[in-house]
Amino acid sequence: MRDGIRWLRRLTLLGAGLLLVLLGAAAPATAHAALRESDPGDGTVLRTAPRHVTLTFTESVGLLTDSFRVYDPENHRLRTGTADHAPGRSDTARVPLPAKLATGTYTVAWRVVSADSHPVSGALTFSVGKRTATAASPVPDETENPATTALYNMARYLAYLAVALLLGIAAFVAYCRPPTAAPLRTPALAAAWTLLAATAALLLLRSPYEQGTSPADALSVSSLTHTATSRPGALLLARLALLLLGGAVVALLRARRRRLPRRFTLAATALFSTALAATWSAAEHASAGLQVPLAITSATLHLLAMAAWLGGLVALLRTLRRLESAAVPVLTRFSRMALASVTVLVLTGVYQSWRGLGSWQALTDTTYGRTLLAKLAAVTALLLVAACSRTWTNRLTGAARAARAETGRAAVPARTPEVATVPARGPEPAPASAAVPADAPEPATAGASLPPTPPPPAATFHLLRRSVLAEAAVGVLVLVLTTLLTSTLPGRAATEAAQTDTVTTGIPTASVTTVPFDTGAAGGTGKVQITLDPGRVGRNSVQAVVYGPDGGLAAVPELRVSFTLPAQRVGPLDTKVTDRGGYWVADSFALPIPGTWTLKVTVRISDLDQVTVTAPVRVTK
């Protein structure tokens, strides 16, 4: 039996380790702030040059030293002013542009930090006077460093696992009062040191994670200074200080061999746990969006309840191995603590789900909603296993009460009948041996203690141990999914961003399609970039640029562009683009029906060499 439990425990630890590595090495987490609108709008053509580039996000954002990079049509970076926030708008960032901008298309690459501590990056283009070909990349040149992101994510998951174990053991010892805390000393120290190391790693990697640079930049003075002056960095420093202070207090008490009163221990544990949990809730989802004070309170209670339940399970599992005979009182107290934790988890979880989703449709249409559904399924499984554990606990408690009652009845002596005395002539007293038999039991003294509770039934106890082990294993999965939710764009923000993605400041965005081609002749490879503006039903302008095999602009003797809608048997409609010095344009081209059109491009590079390529293009209403 013990070999089976040991095997299950090792399998659980191995699975948790593999999940940690995989999640740390996975793709970069989706940040929580989304671009709501921009001015100028993405893909717009302006008559005059703008004075600023302004970006508005779904939540407040922090700025980096290099948040905006603006490139001209020749891919030369412009010297811009210092980026800042719009007056009174922490969700709006802007950067001043040079006084005079030449005609052509400009590319803006941006990177900011959302209020919940995750970096956000993207890019947009705008044109002054007319749209021209640009050699600038349409994506930011600095996004994520894979090594930095993997290390940072692994440290985050380790910190979550460690804080759940540390706070759970502390709550278990303070409330459930096991006869001895010696079996829990090793896991508590391991959790404390792991949390301390993970917090230090997060503090060092914070600036490279925000900037998207290499982990080698973690020890630079500028990185450390930037981290220390930012809100996420300040919260990490506060967490580090709390851990060091808590460790110093525990070491001092152990050195003096003093035990504090139970009420004081409970109050100190609650205060320390709440302060430590607040360093998470004040830096993530709850710190931005709706009802921030209530959300931070709810997130703190949610983390505390999760730690008390899941971390307490690990403590209970280790306690059950050593204290079978004294396990029933501990089980009874843990059952009450677990019930209170589940109640808090349900109430705070419902509120946080409503706050993050915003609508029922977001449950299935967003990554946040689908991850939340997976967490709900895991929590349901956890509750079912917990119900089994509670059933075995009730059986053990009932058996212990029955055994105690039986033992108490056996301990009460039978009443000895009084010996009748016959008056005699002489007052000779009867001998003591005649009044009380030699083998008669000694009378029980008043106030004698009852015998200790007999050990619980072995079969039920082993079933309970297995159930608690399964509960802890499912709890690790719940904890991993919870951490995933903290690194996923909330459904409310995702829906809002999707609704404004196609329209920026009231101006529809252009549809850009790049089609590669190969004529089969020497030097006959390249690509054609087709811009359909605005990409909707009605009048559109069509611009086409041909790039050669070296990536530079290529002049071709003929280019034809047409559209066909096979589903409605419409087309082909010839755009009749004309060459305007290497840049092919049709100023007015009508698309009558929305749908997925087939774009057909014919490129001729000589009298004998030409090729026709196609690509789908979505046209909206």
TrEMBL record:
The keyword Membrane applies. Residues 1-33 form the signal peptide. Pfam families: CopC, CopD. SUPFAM superfamilies: E set domains (SSF81296). Gene3D superfamilies: 2.60.40.1220. Residues 32-128 form the CopC domain. It comes from the Bacteria. Residues 330-408 form the Copper resistance protein D domain. The chain crosses the membrane at residues 157-176, 188-205, 233-252, 264-283, 295-317, 337-354, 374-392, 468-489. Its main location: membrane. Residues 406-454 are annotated as: Disordered. It is a multi-pass membrane protein. Keywords: Cell membrane, Copper, Membrane, Metal-binding, Signal, Transmembrane, Transmembrane helix. It is found in: Cell membrane. Residues 431-450 have a biased composition (Low complexity). This is Copper resistance protein CopC. It comes from Streptomyces sp. 900105245. The lineage of its organism: Bacteria, Bacillati, Actinomycetota, Actinomycetes, Kitasatosporales.
